[in-house]
Structures are given as structure tokens and as C-alpha cells.
Amino acid sequence: MSETKKKVELRSAQWFGTQDKNGFMYRSWMKNQGIPDHEFQGKPIIGICNTWSELTPCNAHFRKLAEHVKKGILEAGGFPVEFPVFSNGESNLRPTAMLTRNLASMDVEESIRGNPMDAVVLLVGCDKTTPALLMGAASVDIPTIVVSGGPMLNGKLDGKSIGSGTAVWQLHEQVKAGEISMHKFLAAEAGHSRSAGTCNTMGTASTMACMAESLGTTLPHNAAIPAVDARRYVLAHMSGMRIVDMVWEDLRLSKILTKEAFENAIRVNAAIGGSTNAVIHLKAIAGRMGVPLELEDWTRIGRGQPTIVDLLPSGRFLMEEFYYAGGLPGVIRRMGEGGMLPHKDALTANGRTLWENNIDAPIYDDEVIRTLDNPLIQDGGICILRGNLAPRGAVLKPSAATPALMQHRGKAVVFENFEHYKERIVDPDLDVDANSVLVMKNCGPKGYPGMAEVGNMGLPPKLLAAGVKDMVRISDARMSGTAYGTVVLHVAPEAMAGGPLGVVKDGDYVELDCAGGKLNLDISDEEMTQRLAARAEQKVEGAKSGYQQLYIDHVLQADEGCDFDFLVGSRGSAVPKHSH
Ligand code: FES
Ligand code: MG
């Protein structure tokens, strides 16, 4: 190690390594924390990027998590410095945490680059914190390791397990259909979220934790160890130890986040029945790294991969069972043995390949991590759709959809925006039946703004009461990774950006063909051209200043990952100027 050690010039020495005015300033102010001189002598300074917040309940245990990372860093001879960044919590933030994902990524990027650190540990958990921190770190590209906060224990209601988010959608529909009482609905609240951690379904948080692990940015098992399991803290400790060696090895994020790593992650997303949000987040992270990733890669690489993880919302179990069954290493092993892991030799944070890490992973429960010949869904990849209704693409998650509806032609019932939907869907006279297609506009990145998770529109109460369980729904919105249904999302361009979704009328016929990857409005090309030409210029109501306006002016469409146009790419870690 000492050989390599000599070759690496510590980045932090640019701050702490000189005996002049600047070195004095950088060290002296740090010393007000009681730091002795020798701490500044040739030790890797490791940033711990903490998204702790009591307003992000999923990340509220992160001060404890950080303490364990620190122990590992100290043990390996590094010096830990913890810093806060914008905590992008999913459950409280309005109008949607997606609006501030890019804001958080800017905070992370500038905090890492502008400060004396040789490497960084990203503490992530709640949905958007994972992509936001990876995006920011990718744009700086110093050695980086991800530590997730882990999922909550299983939710409980009436002695049975209930899953984060998924239970909310189900119970709400049951209340509306008159199947359960309001008392029971409210009683579910306490048992639904009964420990520290992120959503325990295969929602976006769990999906992104699996993505981080399959991309190689974490130690094995990071994705699934429950938040309150002591092994989560051991993993945090080991990650702290490992990041110090990553400095000496100069194992930067760009060596891990390669095109091959993203292809592995796309495949793993299909195997786990992961969230559609991963399509947007992986594109945004890849964009920061300069890795080309297209919607068609999801078809080319992901389709044909069976979903073998039997977790809600697609299947039966929760993250706790997933960890006890063998976690993501078990899935990767099954995939590799079945010839379904495209790049076994992709490098990971511990310096070994993805396959070396997982080749012997034990699997304890074939019900939870199913075998490839007994999958939950035969073809679990995200379905990419194109057509005159979505020239730049749309997505659908087959594992969450009703097979019979994935090939469907129906009459559109159109909602101009989310408010219009809420007002109209409860109208007992609404002209709608089970074959109708619910179409909602203006919920995309610019339109909402922030592309909220409203795409899984609840069904009309009168149809719910009649026993209808699913209908085709189409919008430029996203949906929660915990949601389900035959829901077409991320229609691009969005209505607000002039997309054809904006000209759909009540009664138009819409054709969905998942097998063929098609989404079409059944009107002629001439009619489409006329309607688009006749459409007045779209303008978002309300926003005229502040961050919201910046967002509307610069956000890219869903097929481009909804990053800001000016944030795409890696800007490196160099800071040529001092502050005084
Ligand atoms: Fe935080 Fe689901 S709300 S992970
Ligand atoms: Mg979510």
C-alpha cells in the first residue's frame, strides 16, 4: 500500500498542506473544533455527505449511521468530516421532491468540489436522495462510496404485513369502494411505518438502493439490510474503512460508473421489478458521467429478463424478507448463473468485480428470490413505448400492470391537469367505463412543475364500486415506485412542452401495444398537425421567479433524465482559485 500511497497526491493538501497564509487560514479555523496538528498531515480527508433531516423521516437515523462510517474512516487512517446537504424527502416535500432533486444535486456537487476532501461517502435513503447525491458526486468525480440507510421493517395491520406506499394506495381504494371503514384506514397509519428506514416495498428508494449496488458504487448487501439491523451499521463501518483505501487507489467514480455498469443496472432493475423512476434517475446520473444511455437501452438490455424478486408492489414480500432471503447478491448470482448479467467484470467500490462479489452469494428462500425458470414475471423489463402520442417515448412497468390491458384500444377520457382530474373523476355522470383510457395532461417536468407522482390516477369511484380494479392510464407524470396498474408514464415531450398529449380530446381512440412498443392516438397525421398548430402557446401558471422558474426554464424532458440542461456532464474536482 505504501508504494501506491506515495504516488497519490492528496487533494486536501491543496488546502491543508502549505505553510503560508492560505494553509494557516484553512487549518486554523478547522482547529476551533479541537483538531490536533497531526490530523492534517497526509491523511485522507473523507467527506460524509449527510442527508439527515427530521423532515425526511426515511433519513432521520443518519446521524447514527454517520457515526459508524466515521469509526471505519478513523480505523483505516482517514479523517472524517461530515457535512449536510439539502435533504430531499419524498413524504413531506411539496409540490414534489422531484422538483428539488436537481437543486440537491447542485448543493452536493458544489459542496464536494469546493471543500477539502479526498473522497466522499454518500449517505442516501429516501427516493431522490440517491440520484441527487450520485449526480452531484459524478459531476466532481473523486473516490466515492454510497451507504444507504436501509428499509423499514415490515409494516403491520391486523397482524399481517403491509407495504409502504402500496398499502396506502390499496387502502384508499378500499375506503372509496366502501370495502373498509375510515377507522381501519386511519388505524393502518401507525403500523405502516414502524421503524427507521425507507419504504419497505420495491419502491423507488429500494430500487435506487439496488441500482447503487448493481452499479458497483456500494459494498455488497448495501441495498437490503434493514435500517435497524445491526449489520447495517457494520456495513457503514466497513464502507468508511474502504473509502480510505479508495483514495490511495484513486478509485474514482468514473472508473465504476461505466456504460457496462449502467447496462448491469438496467438488467437488475428488471430482475427486481424496480421502479419506473429508475429510468429517469439512471439517465440523469449517466448524463453527469458522460455515459450515453438511451431509452432504447431499456428495451435492448432489460427486456427478456424475468422478474425474480417477489416483492410488492409487483409481488408478495417486503425488503425485510428480501434481505433474509439473500438480498441483491442472491439476485445477481442467479442472473450471472443464468447468463443474464451482461458485464460480470464491471468494477465495484471494493476493488473487485460485480461477479467476484456475488458468485457465491447464498440464497435462503426461493419464494422471495425465485429461480429463473419460475419467475414472478417472464419478461419484467420496463416497456418503452413510442408513437404519435409519445414521439420521444413513454414507459410502462409490465410487472405492475394487468396483462390483459397491455394490448388495449379505448376511448380517451381527458383531464387537462391534476386539479381537473380530481374534480372530474368523482362526477357520477362522467362518461367512462372499464374500457376507457384515462388521459391526464400537464403533469410533466415543466407542467406540474416537477413531474409529480400522480400518474397512477385513482379509478372513478363508480367503477371501483362496480369492482373494476385496473384501467389504462396515460400521462406525462411519474408514479411512485410503490404504485401499480396499467399506467403509461413519462410521455415525452410533455403537454406543456408542446407534446401531442396536449391535443388529445375526449372520445379520441388511444391504442396501447406493449408488445410492439407502441402508443398511438388514432387520428390522421393531417389531423394531428392541425391540432398541434391550433394549440395556443403553453405557459405554466403561477411561477415567475425563484427556483421554480429556474426549473421550468432549464429542466430537460423525461427521456433526458429531467436534469437541468446546464448541469449535464462532469466538471471535475479542480478549483484553481483560493478564497482569499
Ligand atoms: Fe422515503 Fe418512500 S417516502 S423512501
Ligand atoms: Mg416514492
Automatic annotation (TrEMBL):
It comes from the Bacteria. Gene3D superfamilies: IlvD/EDD C-terminal domain-like. One of its GO terms (molecular function) is hydro-lyase activity. Keywords: Iron, Iron-sulfur, Lyase, Metal-binding. SUPFAM superfamilies: IlvD/EDD N-terminal domain-like, LeuD/IlvD-like. The keyword RNA-binding does not apply. Residues 43-357 form the Dihydroxy-acid/6-phosphogluconate dehydratase N-terminal domain. Residues 367-562 form the Dihydroxy-acid/6-phosphogluconate dehydratase C-terminal domain. PANTHER family: HYPOTHETICAL DIHYDROXY-ACID DEHYDRATASE (EUROFUNG)-RELATED, HYPOTHETICAL DIHYDROXYACID DEHYDRATASE (EUROFUNG)-RELATED. NCBIfam families: PRK06131.1 (NF004784), PRK13017.1 (NF009560). Belongs to the IlvD/Edd family. This is L-arabinonate dehydratase. It comes from Pseudoduganella namucuonensis.
